[in-house]
Amino acid sequence: MKARYRTWLAVPPDERELARNAHPPVNGQKAIVWDGEHKLWYAQPGVELSLLDKWLPRPQNFSTNDSDPVT
């Protein structure tokens, strides 16, 4: 599935180069871009998200209360 909008990614610092090289440029622009204001990586519109699946956020993996931490 191609991104229709800016898609935020969860990229650990030690995987940034791997993420940046996971997708070829789109329309002459980098597919993965750093947003300095939000301090997050994102995929540009038009990027094939299946190539970035490893870094797509998975909200279902987060705890919903303090008594059930996700480790």
Automatic annotation (TrEMBL):
Q: Which residues form the DUF5710 domain?
A: 6-57
Q: What InterPro entries does the database record attribute to this sequence?
A: DUF5710 (IPR043764)
One Pfam family, short name: DUF5710
Q: What is the designated name of this protein?
A: DNA primase
